[in-house]
Design a protein that fits this description.
It is built from 6 helices and 5 strands, in the order βββαβαβαααα. The protein has about 190 residues and is of the alpha/beta class. It has a single domain, classed as Ribonuclease H-like superfamily/Ribonuclease H (Nucleotidyltransferase, domain 5). Strands 3-2-1-4-5 form a 5-stranded mixed beta sheet. Helix 2 links the parallel strand 4 and strand 5. Helix 4 packs across helix 5. The longest helix is centred in the middle third of the chain and has 20 residues. The N and C termini lie far apart (about 35 Å).
Length: about 190
């Protein structure tokens, strides 16, 4: 398994999708996290699934080349009733993962519930709640056109919390409230 760099790192978070892929990048310096970028890659206009996969690969590769992240975190596909949708999402995730692996990035996966839990303290939080908490945490005001952008950002922040929540003090946190209580100086 590839090892991550320490001290300062850039984390690329990806919320894979075949209509819209969300992404977010954060810079972690010690215990501080700051927003670098977030956005979406739209693919609804493409009617060919392989073309969508190609776009995911190319755009993920481009993000890696532009921002030089130290690792990539992805939202894992969740269980769904429609197997065709699950297959397409799995392919989208796999292609994004392949782009990261082609650039020798360590890859991490998190379930949607884990991501929501780490950001809001509630594993069943809605996209709007996650976006609101990220805006507060990372001090940005603009609301993205698609909540998929904040979903991608949430994956990156979730990954940051996984490492920093146990760094130094051996503690892990059950949610945002307990994290804030013990890390008042980190939240500006």
């Amino acid at each position: 398994m590839l090892k991550e760099k320490s001290k300062e790192r850039v984390i690329l978070g990806i919320d894979p999708g075949t209509a819209v892929m969300g992404y977010g990048l954060v810079k972690e310096t010690g215990s501080l996290i700051e927003l670098i970028s977030l956005g979406v890659v739209k693919m609804a206009h493409l009617d060919n699934h392989p073309l969508k996969l190609q776009r995911i690969f190319e755009c993920t590769t481009s993000l890696i080349e532009q921002y030089h992240p130290d690792c990539m975190a992805l939202e894992a596909p969740f269980y769904g009733k429609n197997i065709q949708v699950m297959l397409k999402l799995g392919r989208a995730q796999g292609v994004a993962m392949a782009a990261g692996l082609a650039k020798s990035l360590p890859i991490f996966e998190y379930s949607p519930k884990k991501i929501k839990q780490s950001i809001t303290g509630n594993g069943n939080a809605g996209k709007e709640q996650v976006a609101a908490m990220l805006k507060q945490l990372l001090k940005f005001t603009e609301t993205p056109e698609f909540l998929d952008a904040t979903d991608g950002l949430a994956v990156a922040v979730c990954h940051s919390f996984q490492k920093t929540s146990t760094a130094g003090n051996g503690k892990s946190y059950s949610g945002w409230e307990s994290f804030v209580k013990d890390n008042v100086k980190r939240v500006k």
